[in-house]
Structure formats: structure tokens, C-alpha cells
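subagent[fold] <- orchestrator: predict structure for attached chain, return C-alpha cells only, no commentary.
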Amino acid sequence: MTSSTSRGFTLVELMITIAVLAIGSALAYPSFTGVMRSNRVPTTTNSFIAAFNLARSEAIRSKRGGGVCPSRDGASCEGSDWNVGFMAFEDVDFNGSFSAGDRVLRYFEGNDAMQLSAQPGAGQPAGAGGIEQVAFDRSGRVIAAVQFNVQVKDCAAGQDYRRVLNVRRTGQARMEKEVCQ
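subagent[fold] -> orchestrator:
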């Protein structure tokens, strides 16, 4: 007599495995979505801090100046909408803004799930438009203090998905955790 052993799974075993995976995925998805949302805020905040530190250190190193401004493509500064992305640059001609001949140090892409806004920092007069750039002089000091609000777009009141980033006159950036309003 020959003994035959079958290899593989039966249809019942395969269906049970698929059902268990489906139930596990359905339970994990809401938790994973929350993790993704909570990780977007520190990632964007860290990108801002990296851009400020890069522009500031380059301004000190080159003795020329530097800055950070909103940019859609990483080739030019565009208005005051920080949601499109932003770039750090070296101010080669030391005119306090990005112009022809200035060198782009790094470009940071925007994130559609985030809401970014900037206003003058403490002790600074409020202007008619938004903040169009943060400029550093050759000693690494900021021309005008700025405060950035970083939060997810669908942030509900009381959620911890908001950060306030203060760039002080000394050029240092400080971050504070806050709840959405």
C-alpha cells in the first residue's frame, strides 16, 4: 500500500486565515491612522527647525546671511503660504531676501495634511500680510522674530496635534506642544 500525504492548505483553513487577517486589520486601522496623524506634526516641526538651523549656521559660517521662505518648487520664494513647502537659502548678496545668485541649501516639500501659519513674534508689529521669510544676518540673528503654528488640518479641539515654533531674535528656534483650538 502506498501512503499519500497531501501538502498545502485546505479551503477551510485558507478561509479561516483570511478571516482572522481581515478582523485584525480592521481593528488595527483606526489606531494606525492616529499614529500617522500624530507623527506628521513632529516631522513637519523638525523640518522647520532643520531649515532654520541650516540657514542660521550657513549665515554664520559664510558671514553673508541666510533665510527660510515658502517655496512651491525649491527654486524661488513664493508669497506667504508656508503650506506649499519651504526652502533654506544662503543670502550671497546679503540683501535680506532670496534673489538671483543666492544659493538654495535645501528644499522641504509641503504636506497637504498639515496646516502651517506664521505671524510676527512677541514684540513685533503685526503686518498686513503673512510672513514671507525668516532672514538671518551674518551673526545668526533673526531680522524679525516669528511664531509658527504647525498642526494637522482636521485637528479637533483638545487633541495634542499642534506645535508652536518661536524663532527668537537671537536666531534660536524653540518648540512648544499645545492642544488644538
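orchestrator: received. Logging for downstream: The mean pLDDT is 85. The beta strands are 66-70, 85-90, 103-109, 114-120, 134-136, 146-152, 162-167, 173-178.
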